[in-house]
Amino acid sequence: MRIPYSLAAFLFGAGFWLIPHPGAAQSGGVPVHPGRTTQYVFRHGEVMERVGRQLTPLTQNIRLPNGTKINVRSGIVEFPGGKVTSLHEEDYLNAEGGIVFATPASAAAARGDNSVALNEKYNKYVQVGAAPTAVLGSAATDREALLTREVELLQRKVTLLQQTHPNPPATEEVDKQLQELDAKLKTLR
Predict the structure, then answer these.
(1) Higher-confidence residue: 184 or 7?
(2) Cα-to-chain-centroid distance, residue 106
(3) What's the pLDDT tens digit per position in 71-103?
(4) Of 62, 89, 94, which Cα lies nearest the Cα of 78?
(5) Angle, vertex CA 91, rays to CA 49 and CA 80, nearest 5
(6) Does residue 95 sit within a domain?
(7) Are residues 86 and 143 in the same domain?
(8) CA dist list (Å): 128 to 85, 121, 131, 136
């Protein structure tokens, strides 16, 4: 039995569109349940699972518990709200679906800013002076407590800003608390 050319062309064309394309964004991904310290790092053009120092190449697209999807071949990340971004070399996602950028250029590229040089480096944190002592009630201990609280507030603000809701998140309360902490820190210097 011969199939007419037009029918064969239609069936071939329809079949082509039904085949999943490996470069497309995630089509669900395999659900994973990573440990708290698991990271999904983009290295040498593919996403690998990193636990401690152990790197394991991934063979299938994955979906984190919060709904974030990762294309393991292209490094395309799709967040639960629909926002899509691409990982660059050494960028990684933590177990909660938060991106940690390896360079200022990759962070800038994620927000659509191409003005940052590719060889730009993050500033290193260097502690100036002696480490704080653990004497109760000392200014050093008070300062350490305030700095710890400031880090917690900054992490909270980052979490709020990473949410992908259509309306921008309200960070005014966190900003107000950060200003109050800064004022207290200035009095301890």
Answers:
(1) 184
(2) 11
(3) 999 999 999 988 898 999 999 999 989 999 888
(4) 62
(5) 80
(6) yes
(7) no
(8) 37, 20, 8, 21
Q: What are 18-68's pLDDT values in tens digits?
A: 333 333 344 578 999 898 899 999 999 999 999 988 999 999 999 999 999
Residue range(s) defining the domain that contains residue 96: 23-110
| Residue 181 included in any domain | yes
Q: What is the distance between the alpha carbons of residues 69 and 52, in angstroms, rounded to a whole number?
A: 22
Q: How many domains does the chain have?
A: 2
* Domain assignment present for 122: no
Q: What is the pLDDT of residues 104-132, one digit of tens each?
A: 888 888 778 878 777 777 766 665 665 55
Nearest to 75 by CA among 128, 149, 23, 124: 23
Burial of 64 per CB tally in 10 Å (0-12, 13-18, 19+): buried
153, part of any domain: yes
Do 105 and 148 share a structural domain?
no
CA distances from 69 to 23, 74, 89, 163 (A): 14, 12, 18, 15
Q: Do 89 and 43 touch, CB atoms closer than 8 A?
A: yes
Could you report the per-residue pLDDT of 136-170, keeping only the tens digit for each? 455 666 777 788 888 887 877 777 777 666 666 67
101 and 143 in a single domain? The answer is no
Proportion of the chain in helix, strand, coil states, percent, rounded to 5:
35, 15, 50
Q: pTM to 2 decimals?
A: 0.52
